[in-house]
Amino acid sequence: MRSHSLRHLTATTTTISSPSWLPKFRSSSGSALASLSFAQNPQENQQQQQKQQTQQKIYCDSSNDDKKSDSNRASSYFPKRGQELELVCESLAYKGKGVCKVADTGFVVLCDRVLPGEKFIGRVTRKKGSYAEMTKLKTLSPHWDSVDAPCEYASYCGGCKTQNLSYEAQLRAKEGQVRDLVVHVGKFSDKDPEFAGIMKPIVPCDIQFHYRNKVSVQNKALPDLLKCDNCSGFNPSLFVFFSFKMEFSFGPKRWFPKESLPKRGDHIENYALGLHAPGFFDKVLNIDKCLLQSEPANLVLAAVQDYWRDPQLGLSPYDVHSHSGFLKHLMLRTGSDVKTGLPELMVNFVTSSYKPELLRPLVEKISSVPEVVSIMNNVNTSVGNTSVGEEEYTLYGKSNITETLRGLTFQISANSFFQTNTHQAEVLYKLIEDCAGLRGDGSKIVLDLFCGTGTIGLTLARWVKHVYGYEVVPQAISDACRNAKLNNISNATFVQGDLNKIGGDFGNAFPKPDIVISGILLARFLVH
After folding, report:
1. What predicted TM-score, i.e. pTM, was given to this entire model?
2. Which of 233, 325, 403, 428 could make an SS bond with 237 (beta carbons 3.0 to 4.6 A apart)?
3. Is the separation of the CB atoms in 403 and 345 below 8 Å?
4. Among the listed ranges 3-17, 99-113, 320-334, 349-363, which one has the minimum average pLDDT value?
5. Are 411 and 402 in contact (CB under 8 A)?
6. For 72-81, 462-471, 501-510, which range has the lowest pLDDT when averaged over its residues?
7. pLDDT at 221 over 70
């Protein structure tokens, strides 16, 4: 599911009635302004709902008595570490792990790389209070909605580990997880008659691959997947699934799957550029092509792979143990030329020191790719894994690329935040406009929280009186101001500040807002 970046959303809105609007986010029930369903007809929606209800009945206990009985049995059952069990995956949990229950006990076991309906044998690896985790040993019967994964690395890298689950099934799983967040974290009752108006159907994307405009090659462990990348706000904003940036690494230790282990005596090229092996921060699965990024980006990745190991270049990958080595991270960003609409690519090398002479042969190699218009070098001397450098240098071309969104032009620098799926961002931003109910009379005040580079607020600016954006990252605020000027937008104010540390007088810093956009992190307010 990680491959489906910024592809699904659910929208709601609420009415703000007093200056103390912020604490009410959690308790306000809200009312929907627009249906986000792209289904072809109501009959299809009804059939899909009936199918989901049927599946849910398989997983749900039939009565409260049964639940109490299962709870008692589960509390008295404790599988041992190393114990092998035969289980059936019932559903997907947050981060994409399969949820299973031990027969006759109801004890919950989480297992990576199993999917709903799959019958398998697994070995318990650890116990965590009321549940256990296990590793799959063998599949006995396949899962529901099985498809062939198009990526050769899907079984190993951990980035797109549900590629062998049909897209429709992924949508159902994601929608269910958002529903759980709304009910259990947002404290909305799914038994409330108004709930159907709050929780709208998921919106699929018609592009499944090559949609990412940013891929970051980093010396950092890859998260497990399904990152509700992140569940953005609720009341009055959107729950949005992003795909967090792909994280590759330059590494001195290449990782091989068991079935691909080299034989004794085989020559092994130890240096690797790719994704971290799941569970390892210092071992890298070498990747030659990623189906999430653009074809020009894959050409650059292939060029780097073919060339960077040449001993004559004197390049070395950064070692996270010894803190030695030169190449740390690589970031590839794809934009589009404003005049021609053709792709333009930024390549950013993050290194442990500034030695442009070492990078010069690579720069000459990849600058021959026609779409490459910018090659940057961020220097990060710290031992941490961040890809943002203390210093930044332009090695080739210009220092930024451009992208067009909702008729506006945005300049994107090496460390700028920008929606990673431009195609679906168009859909998302149009839905925000529709949900906001803007009349275009210039009478509304918009408050854009966690605004990033201000893309949402700037696309609304033409319809409203004024936009106020808040963001903690100084570079993002700088980008927002620059993009406002680039698009001749004068009714937008962007302020740098930490929204996790606001005081009771925060609402005095701007006029009473008519519309609040939550950005991608307002879910924190639901928790606090």
Report:
1. 0.70
2. 233
3. no
4. 3-17
5. yes
6. 72-81
7. no
For residue 188, the number of C-alpha atoms closer than 13 Å in the C-beta half-sphere is: 26
Of 239, 166, 230, the residue nearest 202 (C-alpha): 239
Spell out the long-range contacts of 188-194 with Cβ–Cβ below 8 A and sequence spacing 24 or more.
Answer: 188/29, 192/29, 194/29, 194/31
DSSP character at residue 322: T
Residues 6+ apart with CB under 8 A from 484: 454, 458, 461, 490, 492, 494
pLDDT in tens, 272-329: 898 877 777 888 888 898 888 888 888 999 999 999 999 999 999 999 899 999 999 8
Q: Which residue has the tokens 């609402």?
A: 507
From CA 393, how far away is CA 122, in angstroms rounded? 50
Tell me how far apart the terminal alpha carbons of the chain are, to the nearest angstrom: 28
Token pair in block for residue 242: 């992003």
Closest by CA position to 9, among listed 245, 293, 230:
230
pLDDT at 47: 46
Judge whether 124 and 133 are in contact, CB under 8 Å: yes
- Residue 108, Cβ neighbours under 10 Å: how many? 15
In which residue are the tokens 């589009």 written? 336
Express each pLDDT in 354-386 by its tens digit. 999 999 999 999 999 999 999 999 999 998 777
List, in order, residues 6 or more apart from 343 with CB less than 8 Å away: 294, 296, 334, 335, 336, 337, 371
Q: Give me the numbers of helices (H) and strands (E) for the chain, helices first please.
A: 10, 21
